[in-house]
Amino acid sequence: MEEDKKLYKEFLAENSEAFNAIISKYEKNLIYFITRHVKDIDVAQDIYQDTVMYLLEHKEKYDDKYSLKSYLYLIAKSRTINYLNSKKELSQ
Predict the structure, then answer these.
(1) Tens of pLDDT along the chain (92 residues)?
(2) Domain count for the chain
(3) Cα–Cα distance, 65 to 88 (Å, whole number)
(4) Residue 64: count of CB within 10 angstroms of its CB
(5) I need a labelling partner for 37 at 20 to 30 A (CA). Which of 18, 44, 46, 86 fits?
């Protein structure tokens, strides 16, 4: 957890290697998490990319008193729910 905080601070200081380290650390597990809900690896990868973009665009929103891992899963969960809701609306 301390490693994540350090990497995130480096990411905030515009260190792209720190950002890449964060993303590569959680990529497989997040895609697996999303795939369990959407049942489609391609869709899961798109949602994962959306999660990464959210992190990039809203980097100041993360509060480091919480786990970065939990924050990333929360974003992924939210994006997954949005996808599932939109898919449900289209089928009605």
Answers:
(1) 789 999 999 999 999 999 999 999 999 999 999 999 999 999 999 999 999 999 999 999 999 889 999 999 999 999 999 999 998 777 76
(2) 1
(3) 36
(4) 14
(5) 18
List the domain range (segments joined by +) for residue 59.
Answer: 28-91
In a domain, residue 8? The reply is no
User: What is the rounded CA–CA span in Å between residue 62 and residue 34?
Assistant: 21
Token pair listed for 16: 């792209």
Cα–chain center distance at 4: 14
Q: Residue 32 domain-assigned?
A: yes
Give residues with Cβ within 8 angstroms of 8, minimum separation 6. 18, 22, 62, 64, 68
